[in-house]
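Budget justification, computational time. The allocation requested in the original proposal was used primarily to generate C-alpha cells for proteins on the priority list. As evidence of use, we reproduce two of the resulting records. The first is shown immediately below.
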Amino acid sequence: MRESLSTELSRLMKQEGISQSGLSRATGVPQPTINRILSQVTQDPRRDSMISIANYFGVPLESLYGSSSAQKSSKKDPKAIEDIFNRILGLSKVERKALFSQVAEKFKED
C-alpha cells in the first residue's frame, strides 16, 4: 500500500471532522480495518471497503490511492458524471435517501 492512501484518508477524515468509529458506522467498514489503513498495516484493503469510503466522502475511488491529480483527471473525464449516476442507481432506496440528505447538508454549508 502506498503512503498516499493513509495520508489521503486521514486528510479526508480531518476535513470532514469524522472519527474512525464514525466513519465505520457511516460506511459499514469495520473500525479496525480503517485503523489498519491509516496505520499502513493493511497492504491491500478490500475494494468494496474502499468503494464505501470513497462514496462516503464523495470522491473517486482512484483519488484515495493517488494525489489530487486523480481528482482533477476525473473532472476532465466526460464519463465521470455517467459513472456517478450509475453508482447512485446501484444504491438502495434508503441509501439514496441518505446520500441526497448528505448532499443537501453539504451544499447548505457552502
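The second record produced under the same allocation is shown here.
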Amino acid sequence: MSIIDQVEVHEFTFTARNLHLKGAGAHASITYQKGASILLTKYAVVVSCRDGARGEYVPLWGGTRPALAQTLTLAPLLLGRDADHREQIYDDLKRELRQYDHYGHGPIDIALWDLAGKKFGASVSHLLGGYRGRLKAYASTYHADRSGGLDSKEKFAAFAEQCLDLGYRGFKIHGWNEGDAREEAENVRYVGRQVADRMTLMLDPACELRTFADALYVGRACDDFGYFWYEDPYRDSGVSAFGHRKLREMLKTPILQTEHVRGVEPKADFAIAGGTDFLRADPEYDMGITGCMKIAHLAEALGLDCEVHASDPAHRHCMNAMRNTNFYEVALVGPDCPNAMPPVYACGYSDALEAVGKDGCFPVPTGPGLGVTYDWDYIAKNRTNLHRFTL
C-alpha cells in the first residue's frame, strides 16, 4: 500500500513577455502587445507516500487563484489514503466540491496518476491503454487584438499560413473580445477563402458574441467555408443545452460545447438534450485524468467524438488513449509572442508553437508517470508560498 503522508502545494509566479492582460485576468483577455509583460501565478502539487512513492503536477490552464483555493481545501483530505485508490478518491473529492466548480480537483488526480505510473514503471498512457504515440495538432490562436498582433483578417490569414508552413493542418480562431458579429464573420470568411482548402478550420468566440442572433450570423459564415466546429459562441457562457440545440438545428457547422460544463454527469445531460455535436473534456477542468477518461467513454457510448481542451502532458496521455478524438490543441499561440505558460520543464518537453513536427503532430511522453521532469529549481526560485500538509 502507498499511504499518502504528505501533500505540498507550491505557489509561484512567472513573467510572460509581449503579452497584455485586458480586464480581470481571464485567459480570454490575454492578447499581444509588443514590449508589454504580465506577471502570472501558478502552483505545483506534490503527493508523497510512506513507501517513497511520489506524484507531481503543475496545472497550467486550471492553475488559477480560485483553483488553488479548492486544491488547498482538498489536499489535507488525501492524508492517510491509499494513493492507488484513485477511483474512490475521485468520488470523495467530487462530493467535497459539490457546491463549487471542481477546478481544484484535477491537479490532485493528475498527480496521483503520475505517482502510479512512477510506482509501476509505466507511463500514464500505458496504464490507460494508449496507442497513438503522435497526436495530430491544431494551432489555437490568442484572441484578436488592436495592438499590431492578430489585429486584422489579413493578419489571421498570414498566421494561418505560417502555422501551415510549420506543419499544422488545423487552425482555430479566437476573435475580438468586443463580439462584433460582422467583424467576426468577415474574419471567418477571409481566413476561409485563404486556407480552407489546405487546413481544417475551427472557430471559438469564447462566449463573446452577445446574442443568439449574433451566434447564428457568425455560424452561417462558418457554414460557407466548411469549418470543422463552432465552439462556445455566445454569452450564455456555454451552458445552455436548449440554446445550442436550436443553433445546431439552424447551422451546418458542428457545435462543440461543454468546456464550461464540469464533469461527466452534466455533460451527459447536455449531449442527451441535443446541445452539442462534440463533447469537450480537460483533465485539469474535469476532475483529472479519471474524470477526463469518463467523459471520453461517455462520448464514445453516445457515438460522439470528444475533443481535449488545451495542451499539457496529462492532456497528451488522455488523448493517446482515446479512439474518438481528432486534434491536440496547441494553445494559446500568436505570431510574435509565446504561449502564456511557465517554463517548468527540465526535460525538453514543449507546447510552443514551433515544437510541432513536420508531420503536424506532437509526441506523447513515454517515461514513467507523466513522463516529464519538472524544474524544481525554477519553481523554488519563483515560489511565493509553500503549503505543506503532513500526516
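A brief technical remark on that second record: Residues 106-120 form the longest helix (15 residues).
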